Amino acid sequence: EVHLVESGGGLVQAGGSLRLSCAGSGFTFDDYAIGWARQAPGKEREGFSCIKNSDGSIDYASSVKGRFTISSDHAKNTVYLQMNNLKPEDTAVYYCNGHDSWGPGTQVTVSP
Q: Percent of the chain beyond pLDDT 90?
């Protein structure tokens, strides 16, 4: 059974940092891309970063480029999201997805 779980969310002041983790199981991690998406209150879920574990290629949305860094640890079947210079508008539930599955999400709250 495919399983993804996020961790590392929390409350941080504007300008602060958090590192999220997405641990995967039940599938061959190296064969799939893992993406991060977020959903703010009253808004649609939007994807903003993705890493292809097969070749290491990475994409970012303009809203996070230069502030967020995605990386992958194949030995741990885990993808990380380092978030720096956080802004109040980054407040959302953050989800990872891969192999047509989604994790339950982790809350990130950035105070002014």
A: 89
